[in-house]
Every structure is written in C-alpha cells, then in structure tokens.
Amino acid sequence: xxxxxxxxxxxxxxxxxxxxxxxxxxxxxxxxxxxxxxxxxxxxxxxxxxxxxxxxxxxxxxxxxxxxxxxxxxxxxxxxxxxxxxxxxxxxxxxxxxxxxxxxxxxxxxxxxxxxxxxxxxxxxxxxxxxxxxxxxxxxxxxxxxxxxxxxxxxxxxxxxxxxxxxxxxxxxxxxxxxxxxxxxxxxxxxxxxxxxxxxxxxxxxxxxxxxxxxxxxxxxxxxxxxxxxxxxxxxxxxxxxxxxxxxxxxxxxxxxxxxxxxxxxxxxxxxxxxxxxxxxxxxxxxxxxxxxxxxxxxxxxxxxxxxxxxxxxxxxxxxxxxxxxxxxxxxxxxxxxxxxxxxxxxxxxxxxxxxxxxxxxxxxxxxxxxxxxxxxxxxxxxxxxxxxxxxxxxxxxxxxxxxxxxxxxxxxxxxxxxxxxxxxxxxxxxxxxxxxxxxxxxxxxxxxxxxxxxxxx
Length: 458
Prior knowledge:
It is found in: Membrane. The protein is mainly α.
C-alpha cells in the first residue's frame, strides 16, 4: 500500500525534468496556453517553442553584440578628420548579418503569422530590419553617398541591441538592476535640476564676493582662465562644478583665495556643505529609495501580468473542455475526458504540456472531483487543475486529502475485519461452551445411571 501511494504521489507531483520544464514557463503557464503562441498548428507551435529556447536567445544575443561591434567600427572609420576606409570584411559581415536577421524575420512571420503583432519585441525586430533594408537599398541602388546625416540614420540599427534585453529575463538580478535604473532616472533628473539651482545661487554670490579677490590674485600671473573663473554667473557655475562636484583643481583656485582672504572660508564651506554633502547625498538617497520602490512595483506588475496570463490560459483551457461536453449537459464524466485525451489533439497537447499523461489522467480526475459526484464541470476542472499544477501548497494539500481518504477507507476496512474476527471468536467460544455443557450433562446422566444400578443390586 505504501509503495502504491508513493508511486501515485510521485506521478502526481511530476518528475524533476517536468518540474524544470514547467518552471521555465513564466508563471507556470505552458506554451500551449500562451495567447501569443501559434497553437492552431503543431508544426508552427514546435518551431515557435524552438525559437524561444535559451540556446536560440543566446545565439541571437551574440549576433546582436557582433552587429554592435560592426557599427562601432563603421562609426570610428567615418569620424570627421579621420581618413580611414571601412574594411571590406566589415561590409561583408554587415551584409551577412542583414541577411540573417531578414531570414529570421521571415521565419517568425511564417511561424507566428497574425500573432506576431502581439509581441513588442517582434515589432521592434521588424522595424529595425525594414529600416536597415531601406538604408542598404538607398545606398546600393540609388547611389546616395553616406553623408553625415545619412550615416546618423544608419545608427538606428543599434536599436537592435534592445533585443538583447530579453536575455535579462533569464536573470532576476540583471532584470531588477535594469528596472531599478529606469525607475531612478526620474530622481536623477530632478536631482540634477536641484543641483543646477543650488549652483546658480552660489554662482551669483561668487560674482559679487569672490571675483574681486580672485581677479586681484591672478591678474598678473601666468594663468589664462584663473582671472576669469568667477567673472560671470556662467563662469562661476562652471568653476563650482569643476572644483566642488568634480573635485578638480580645488587647490589651484580655492586655496589661493582662502590664503588671501580667510573670511571666504564661509562661502566655500557653505558651497561644500549645501551642494557636495547635503544635495548630492540626498539625491543618492532618493535614487536608492526609487530603486526600492521599483522593486516593489516590479513584483506587483509581475503578479498582475501572471494573473493576466493565467486568466487568458484559463479561458483557452475552458474552451477546450467545452468541446468535450458532447451532450451539452454542463458536466463531463471521466470517460469523456479520456476520449477527449485520445481524440482531441489540442486538449491532449495542453495536458501533456502541464505534465499530465494518459496514465495520470484518471488519477488526476479522481483528485479534481472534490464532491465525489463522478462528473466534473469545465469550471471545476479548470480551476482545480490550475491550482493543482501552479500552487505547490495546494498540490500537497490535495495529495494529503486523497491520502487521508484512502487511510479512512483502510481504517474502515480494518475495523470491519476486526469486528468479523471478534464475531468469529465469539462464535467459537459459544460453540465450545455448548459442547462442554452437553458433555457435562451426558456425564451427569451416566453417573446417575450407575448409582441406580448399584442401588438395585444392593
């Protein structure tokens, strides 16, 4: 009994390979139920799964990195004042890359067909490839020279590097870093605005307070910019950015002024405390806080996306189950499920994608039938099946529930056997007592007869 239960539980929980395959799906939803996948054709579906594999993504990422390297070589060769021709192998490699990406786009158009518009990355690929083809056609067939403006347009091909962002989804750490960086851009922008405001205020004071002292010190010395470092608000702002924020030439400009007029220490101390210590550290704290908020928002958005994908997959599986209800009774018995698994290829592929084979179907149906009615409605089947496959806790509880049911049945059977054995023991005891009583009665009659005979002889 324990071996049978262990085998059934192992079959229900799934093999390690199946768990690995399922965990690769986003939110535990199989590719068969992804609305962006071409489920109407088994061949195109398998090709789509192959194109989404980790190996294919890595190969495409390496090709994208190589293409960016080619763009870097082109930009360096076309820089102003650099007389350097683009190597011939770069042109050949660009043509090979363009041909490869064009064939990839045609492949995805043939595989996904109208569903290609449901994936934003596919649309980005199509835009970049078509733009690249247009640029190549204009250069080769229209005879247009690569002017600086036209070369800048060619740099749009670097947008293809956005495709490599898909690899970030394979690593949670890289994905969180990218999301945190994007979320902190707003804090960085407003922080820069605040720094500009603070530097402008101190620059206005510098023109009035620091410039006379600085000019008197540097007017007769051999320094081209030093006498003009604080002569205007713009020059003062540049000087403060250079000395306070960047930390460059602080000793060349500030120290001579402090030595000539120590009272200016109040000004420079105010600049350092307000801009360097207070404002910059405050911006850093806001950036960290924004990154933390982005992490929380990311988890929330991921949960919403998983719920959205789950609802879409549930609706599709519900439609597949409705096709099995041939008598339109709203209930599906186990025989209809088995027949649908054998005859409906879409339904069979869907269950196989969730790790449920033909041998496991009856066992799964017995678990999903919570009310023990023998029939399962499509709603009950879909709801319980997804809870069983996507929630490990619910899966374990369902298994334990069934184990408890079997143990109860075993306990009832054992109690019946004990009662039967007790009754048999009682019957044997009663039979033995009756035999003993009869034997005693027979012995008593024999004794009485013997006494009577002795009396007669006497």
